[in-house]
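Work through what follows:
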Amino acid sequence: MTMSSLKSHEVGNIGVVTLTRAHKRNALDEAAIQEIDDYFSNVPSHIRVIVMMAEGEHFCAGLDLKEHHDLERGAVDFLRVCQAWHRAFDKIQHGGIPVIACLQGAVVGGGLELASAAHIRVADSSTYFSLPEGTRGIFTGGGATVRTARIITADRMIEMMLTGRVVDIEEGHRIGLAHYVCNTPQNPVSAKDFSMQLAERIAQNAYLSNYAIVTSINKIADMSATDGLFAEGLMAAVVQTGHDVQSRLNEFVTKRARKVKPGEDGIGQAK
Protein backbone atom coordinates (compact mmCIF):
# COMPACT_ATOMS: atom_id res chain seq x y z
CA MET A 1 0.00 0.00 0.00
CA THR A 2 1.51 3.35 -1.11
CA MET A 3 1.01 6.08 1.48
CA SER A 4 2.44 9.59 1.87
CA SER A 5 1.13 10.50 5.34
CA LEU A 6 1.58 7.10 6.99
CA LYS A 7 3.99 4.23 6.91
CA SER A 8 3.38 0.72 8.17
CA HIS A 9 5.32 -2.40 8.96
CA GLU A 10 4.80 -5.64 10.84
CA VAL A 11 6.55 -7.24 13.78
CA GLY A 12 5.31 -10.81 13.71
CA ASN A 13 1.54 -10.59 14.17
CA ILE A 14 1.65 -6.95 15.32
CA GLY A 15 0.94 -4.17 12.84
CA VAL A 16 2.67 -0.83 13.38
CA VAL A 17 1.26 2.25 11.64
CA THR A 18 3.12 5.56 11.97
CA LEU A 19 2.05 9.11 11.17
CA THR A 20 4.78 10.70 9.04
CA ARG A 21 3.82 14.39 8.86
CA ALA A 22 6.24 15.49 11.58
CA HIS A 23 6.87 18.77 9.71
CA LYS A 24 3.18 19.57 10.36
CA ARG A 25 3.17 18.16 13.91
CA ASN A 26 1.31 15.27 12.27
CA ALA A 27 -1.78 17.41 11.62
CA LEU A 28 -4.39 15.49 9.64
CA ASP A 29 -5.43 16.62 6.19
CA GLU A 30 -7.95 14.90 3.92
CA ALA A 31 -5.26 12.65 2.40
CA ALA A 32 -4.05 11.49 5.83
CA ILE A 33 -7.58 10.60 6.92
CA GLN A 34 -8.10 8.62 3.72
CA GLU A 35 -4.86 6.73 4.32
CA ILE A 36 -5.91 5.88 7.88
CA ASP A 37 -9.22 4.62 6.48
CA ASP A 38 -7.41 2.57 3.82
CA TYR A 39 -5.01 0.99 6.31
CA PHE A 40 -7.70 -0.05 8.79
CA SER A 41 -9.92 -1.29 5.95
CA ASN A 42 -7.24 -3.68 4.72
CA VAL A 43 -5.51 -5.08 7.80
CA PRO A 44 -3.88 -8.44 6.95
CA SER A 45 -5.68 -11.41 8.48
CA HIS A 46 -2.68 -12.53 10.57
CA ILE A 47 -2.42 -9.20 12.46
CA ARG A 48 -3.66 -9.52 16.04
CA VAL A 49 -2.81 -6.09 17.50
CA ILE A 50 -2.06 -2.69 15.94
CA VAL A 51 0.17 0.01 17.45
CA MET A 52 -0.31 3.59 16.22
CA MET A 53 2.79 5.77 16.51
CA ALA A 54 4.00 9.11 15.17
CA GLU A 55 7.29 10.48 13.90
CA GLY A 56 8.74 13.60 15.47
CA GLU A 57 8.08 15.22 18.82
CA HIS A 58 4.28 15.22 18.60
CA PHE A 59 1.63 12.54 18.16
CA CYS A 60 -0.92 14.69 16.36
CA ALA A 61 -1.86 18.38 16.44
CA GLY A 62 -5.32 17.72 14.99
CA LEU A 63 -7.02 19.09 11.90
CA ASP A 64 -4.72 20.63 9.31
CA LEU A 65 -5.99 24.19 9.77
CA LYS A 66 -3.97 25.54 6.84
CA GLU A 67 -5.73 23.16 4.46
CA HIS A 68 -9.07 24.09 6.04
CA HIS A 69 -8.30 27.81 5.65
CA ASP A 70 -7.06 27.50 2.07
CA LEU A 71 -10.03 25.43 0.84
CA GLU A 72 -12.66 27.75 2.38
CA ARG A 73 -15.04 24.80 2.72
CA GLY A 74 -18.78 25.33 2.86
CA ALA A 75 -21.02 23.67 5.45
CA VAL A 76 -21.81 20.63 3.29
CA ASP A 77 -18.17 20.22 2.28
CA PHE A 78 -17.04 20.21 5.90
CA LEU A 79 -19.84 17.86 6.93
CA ARG A 80 -18.40 15.39 4.44
CA VAL A 81 -14.94 15.90 5.94
CA CYS A 82 -16.36 15.09 9.40
CA GLN A 83 -18.07 11.99 8.04
CA ALA A 84 -14.77 10.83 6.54
CA TRP A 85 -13.10 11.20 9.96
CA HIS A 86 -15.99 9.29 11.57
CA ARG A 87 -15.68 6.43 9.07
CA ALA A 88 -11.91 6.16 9.52
CA PHE A 89 -11.99 6.31 13.32
CA ASP A 90 -14.93 3.87 13.52
CA LYS A 91 -12.71 1.34 11.74
CA ILE A 92 -10.07 1.84 14.44
CA GLN A 93 -12.50 1.45 17.33
CA HIS A 94 -14.84 -1.18 15.91
CA GLY A 95 -12.56 -3.09 13.52
CA GLY A 96 -12.19 -6.10 15.81
CA ILE A 97 -8.44 -5.71 16.39
CA PRO A 98 -7.03 -4.16 19.59
CA VAL A 99 -5.37 -0.81 18.83
CA ILE A 100 -2.77 0.82 21.07
CA ALA A 101 -2.00 4.52 20.60
CA CYS A 102 1.57 5.47 21.52
CA LEU A 103 1.48 9.16 22.43
CA GLN A 104 4.07 11.90 22.80
CA GLY A 105 4.04 15.68 22.79
CA ALA A 106 0.88 17.32 21.45
CA VAL A 107 -2.33 15.28 21.43
CA VAL A 108 -4.54 18.17 20.47
CA GLY A 109 -7.98 18.59 18.90
CA GLY A 110 -8.35 15.97 16.19
CA GLY A 111 -5.23 14.26 17.55
CA LEU A 112 -7.12 13.60 20.78
CA GLU A 113 -10.06 12.35 18.72
CA LEU A 114 -7.70 9.92 16.97
CA ALA A 115 -6.22 8.76 20.27
CA SER A 116 -9.70 8.37 21.77
CA ALA A 117 -10.58 5.85 19.04
CA ALA A 118 -7.78 3.55 20.24
CA HIS A 119 -8.51 0.96 22.91
CA ILE A 120 -5.36 1.59 24.96
CA ARG A 121 -3.35 4.81 25.22
CA VAL A 122 0.32 4.68 26.26
CA ALA A 123 1.87 8.10 26.80
CA ASP A 124 5.40 9.44 27.04
CA SER A 125 5.90 11.85 29.93
CA SER A 126 6.11 14.70 27.36
CA THR A 127 2.47 14.19 26.34
CA TYR A 128 -0.12 16.93 26.78
CA PHE A 129 -3.75 17.22 25.73
CA SER A 130 -5.96 20.08 24.60
CA LEU A 131 -9.24 20.81 22.83
CA PRO A 132 -8.64 24.38 21.57
CA GLU A 133 -11.62 24.49 19.20
CA GLY A 134 -13.35 27.25 21.15
CA THR A 135 -10.35 29.56 20.83
CA ARG A 136 -10.01 28.71 17.11
CA GLY A 137 -13.65 29.50 16.33
CA ILE A 138 -14.41 25.92 15.29
CA PHE A 139 -16.07 22.81 16.75
CA THR A 140 -14.95 19.22 17.14
CA GLY A 141 -15.83 17.10 14.12
CA GLY A 142 -13.87 13.88 14.46
CA GLY A 143 -15.88 12.16 17.17
CA ALA A 144 -14.79 13.87 20.38
CA THR A 145 -18.36 14.52 21.52
CA VAL A 146 -18.90 10.76 21.46
CA ARG A 147 -15.54 9.19 22.30
CA THR A 148 -13.58 11.77 24.30
CA ALA A 149 -16.62 12.92 26.25
CA ARG A 150 -17.28 9.32 27.24
CA ILE A 151 -13.74 9.04 28.59
CA ILE A 152 -13.58 12.29 30.55
CA THR A 153 -17.32 13.19 30.86
CA ALA A 154 -19.16 15.75 28.76
CA ASP A 155 -18.85 18.37 31.51
CA ARG A 156 -15.05 18.21 31.53
CA MET A 157 -14.91 18.26 27.73
CA ILE A 158 -17.01 21.43 27.66
CA GLU A 159 -14.62 23.08 30.12
CA MET A 160 -11.58 22.06 28.05
CA MET A 161 -13.14 23.42 24.84
CA LEU A 162 -14.31 26.70 26.36
CA THR A 163 -10.95 27.47 27.98
CA GLY A 164 -8.61 25.80 25.48
CA ARG A 165 -6.33 24.98 28.41
CA VAL A 166 -3.57 22.41 28.24
CA VAL A 167 -3.98 19.23 30.29
CA ASP A 168 -0.59 17.90 31.37
CA ILE A 169 0.25 14.22 31.51
CA GLU A 170 -0.40 13.87 35.24
CA GLU A 171 -3.96 15.18 34.92
CA GLY A 172 -4.45 13.36 31.62
CA HIS A 173 -3.53 10.08 33.26
CA ARG A 174 -5.80 10.78 36.20
CA ILE A 175 -8.87 11.50 34.04
CA GLY A 176 -8.33 8.58 31.68
CA LEU A 177 -6.78 10.15 28.58
CA ALA A 178 -3.74 7.91 29.10
CA HIS A 179 -3.78 4.42 30.60
CA TYR A 180 -0.01 4.19 31.06
CA VAL A 181 2.70 6.84 31.43
CA CYS A 182 6.26 5.99 30.39
CA ASN A 183 9.72 7.54 30.57
CA THR A 184 9.26 8.40 34.24
CA PRO A 185 11.23 7.39 37.36
CA GLN A 186 8.42 4.92 38.16
CA ASN A 187 8.31 3.52 34.61
CA PRO A 188 11.57 4.32 32.77
CA VAL A 189 10.64 2.24 29.71
CA SER A 190 10.02 4.28 26.54
CA ALA A 191 6.41 4.60 25.39
CA LYS A 192 7.23 2.84 22.12
CA ASP A 193 8.90 -0.11 23.81
CA PHE A 194 6.10 -0.40 26.38
CA SER A 195 3.47 -0.24 23.62
CA MET A 196 5.15 -3.07 21.74
CA GLN A 197 5.50 -5.17 24.89
CA LEU A 198 1.83 -4.58 25.65
CA ALA A 199 0.90 -5.53 22.08
CA GLU A 200 2.88 -8.76 22.34
CA ARG A 201 1.03 -9.70 25.51
CA ILE A 202 -2.42 -8.86 24.10
CA ALA A 203 -1.65 -10.79 20.90
CA GLN A 204 -1.36 -13.93 23.03
CA ASN A 205 -5.02 -13.68 24.06
CA ALA A 206 -7.61 -15.78 22.28
CA TYR A 207 -8.46 -14.06 18.97
CA LEU A 208 -12.21 -14.36 19.48
CA SER A 209 -11.97 -12.97 23.01
CA ASN A 210 -10.03 -9.92 21.81
CA TYR A 211 -12.54 -9.42 19.00
CA ALA A 212 -15.46 -9.52 21.43
CA ILE A 213 -13.82 -7.13 23.88
CA VAL A 214 -13.05 -4.40 21.35
CA THR A 215 -16.27 -4.69 19.32
CA SER A 216 -18.89 -5.37 21.98
CA ILE A 217 -18.26 -3.39 25.15
CA ASN A 218 -18.69 0.12 23.72
CA LYS A 219 -21.76 -0.95 21.74
CA ILE A 220 -23.31 -2.62 24.80
CA ALA A 221 -22.72 0.58 26.78
CA ASP A 222 -25.03 2.37 24.30
CA MET A 223 -27.87 -0.12 24.89
CA SER A 224 -30.56 -0.22 27.50
CA ALA A 225 -29.75 -2.39 30.52
CA THR A 226 -32.09 -5.16 29.31
CA ASP A 227 -30.69 -5.20 25.77
CA GLY A 228 -27.12 -4.89 27.07
CA LEU A 229 -27.42 -7.90 29.36
CA PHE A 230 -28.85 -10.00 26.55
CA ALA A 231 -26.09 -8.92 24.15
CA GLU A 232 -23.45 -9.65 26.80
CA GLY A 233 -24.80 -13.15 27.36
CA LEU A 234 -25.00 -13.80 23.64
CA MET A 235 -21.41 -12.69 23.09
CA ALA A 236 -20.23 -14.75 26.07
CA ALA A 237 -21.94 -17.81 24.62
CA VAL A 238 -20.17 -17.30 21.30
CA VAL A 239 -16.74 -16.63 22.77
CA GLN A 240 -16.78 -19.32 25.44
CA THR A 241 -17.57 -22.05 22.95
CA GLY A 242 -14.62 -21.11 20.73
CA HIS A 243 -12.18 -23.79 19.60
CA ASP A 244 -9.32 -22.80 21.92
CA VAL A 245 -11.39 -22.32 25.09
CA GLN A 246 -10.90 -25.84 26.40
CA SER A 247 -7.11 -25.72 26.08
CA ARG A 248 -6.93 -22.41 27.93
CA LEU A 249 -9.30 -23.58 30.64
CA ASN A 250 -7.25 -26.73 30.98
CA GLU A 251 -4.16 -24.62 31.67
CA PHE A 252 -6.09 -22.96 34.49
CA VAL A 253 -7.45 -26.22 35.91
CA THR A 254 -4.01 -27.85 35.84
CA LYS A 255 -2.46 -24.72 37.44
CA ARG A 256 -0.28 -23.91 34.45
CA ALA A 257 -1.96 -20.58 33.69
CA ARG A 258 -0.51 -17.28 34.89
CA LYS A 259 -2.08 -16.32 38.21
CA VAL A 260 -3.88 -13.02 38.66
CA LYS A 261 -2.10 -11.13 41.42
CA PRO A 262 -1.68 -7.53 42.57
CA GLY A 263 1.39 -5.43 41.84
CA GLU A 264 1.78 -6.13 38.08
CA ASP A 265 1.53 -3.67 35.22
CA GLY A 266 -0.04 -4.39 31.85
CA ILE A 267 2.99 -6.32 30.61
CA GLY A 268 3.14 -8.66 33.59
CA GLN A 269 6.01 -6.94 35.36
CA ALA A 270 6.08 -5.91 39.01
CA LYS A 271 5.27 -2.23 39.51
In short: The two ends are 40 Å apart (CA to CA). The chain has twelve helices and eight strands. The longest strand covers residues 6-11. Residues 6-202 form a domain with the 2-enoyl-CoA Hydratase; Chain A, domain 1 fold (CATH 3.90.226.10).
